[in-house]
Amino acid sequence: MNKLYVGSEVGQLRRVLIHRPRRALTHLTPSNCHQLLFDDVLAVEKAGEEHDVFAKTLESQGVEVLLLTNLLAETLAIAEAKDWLLNTQVSDFRYGPTFANDVRCYLADLPNLELAKILTGGLSFGEMPLESSSMLQSLYKKNDFIIDPLPNHLFTRDTSCWVYGGVSINPMAKVARQRETNHLRAIYRWHPSFAGQDFIKYFGDEPLAYDHSTIEGGDVLVIGKGAVLIGMSERTTPQGVEHLASSLFKHGQAKQVIALELPKDRSCMHLDTVMTHMREDTFSVYPNVIPDDVKCWSLTGDESGRVKATQQTSYISTIEKALHVDKLNLITTGGDNFEAEREQWNDANNVLTVKPGVVIGYERNTYTNEKYDKAGITVLPIPGDELGRGRGGARCMSCPIERDGI
């Protein structure tokens, strides 16, 4: 049986969860894309082809690729899981008892794969053939959504993140993404690959109102040797960090959490859009967002779950101590100021390491990729002209489930 364990950012990647979106992208339009947290609409077929290249690149490196839609469909084959998901995602409080019941009845009769595609890709009033006696149907237009599409499921990194011997099932900051978490709750609870396996659920397993305690996996870097680096961003709060840190310490899974303060800005939505780990002593960094004097705390604790936060003078020396390396090698985004800003926006820093010194990144970021190459980092290039419009690169689009430590 494969081990559910992620011991680092840079050890050999063995199993990863990704999502090839289609239905959700067909529902993305200029009038709704901003509400759904996209800056633009994507060419659906082209985005799918680019995603296929990403999957094949992973497989060429010996990585087992799991697809979210398939996992969700296989989870829905379990009656208890299907019942829970339909009642959670199509609740009486969201739609009123009459319409909720009608929608659930319609969805329950669909094949599981079709149902999985609707839950992730959305359903408009015009697409539901059922006539309901509820007032709702006559109050909405055909193109209004009964179930909003979840195009951000593309970024499987955020919804859940595996940290050493367990997973955080993340309460998301934005309403447009909060339903994603329920899909992962169901998969980790019922899917045969996870049900009954020996792993810890650190945080977020219950569908509660987590209030200000939000956390997203793009901010969580498992840098190894018992340390975790977390960015406090537009989406991850100090409260969320403290909850995850407390659970990590309580279960004896981490010795230290290093927290960095990030600007609350879309261009650096998560830590991994400005900083990723490429080799034990090497990080890519966008210095305009992560200057040497960025505010940094070291969080420690014990099995009581209490957390002690101590502000540090230098994030670089804090990471060096945690990783037991003499000197960190920081590779900054390539080109002049204009080129560097453009390439950071196009996810030049958001690379996915598949083994030490080998990363997957968008081919379009030529200046930064050249710097990586000169530093001895091998870039496996993938196309991202369409996928990149979602503002996420290879790391954003991947949720490692099994990876070696360092």
From TrEMBL:
Organism field: Vibrio maritimus
Catalytic activity reported: L-arginine + H2O = L-citrulline + NH4(+)
Pathway: Amino-acid degradation; L-arginine degradation via ADI pathway; carbamoyl phosphate from L-arginine: step 1/2
Main enzyme class: hydrolase
Cellular location(s): Cytoplasm
Active site, renumbered: C396 (amidino-cysteine intermediate)
Ranges annotated as spanning the membrane: none
GO molecular-function terms, A-Z: arginine deiminase activity
Keyword Cytoplasm in annotation: yes
PANTHER family: ARGININE DEIMINASE (PTHR47271:SF2)
CC terms in the record's Gene Ontology section: cytoplasm
Family, as annotated: Belongs to the arginine deiminase family.
NCBIfam families on file: arcA (TIGR01078), PRK01388.1 (NF002381)
Enzyme Commission (EC) number: 3.5.3.6
Domain of life: Bacteria
InterPro entries: Arg_deiminase (IPR003876)
Pfam family, one: ADI
GO biological process, one term: L-arginine deiminase pathway
UniProt name for this protein: Arginine deiminase
Keywords from the UniProt entry: Arginine metabolism, Cytoplasm, Hydrolase
HAMAP family (UniProt xref): Arg_deiminase
Keyword Hydrolase (UniProt): yes
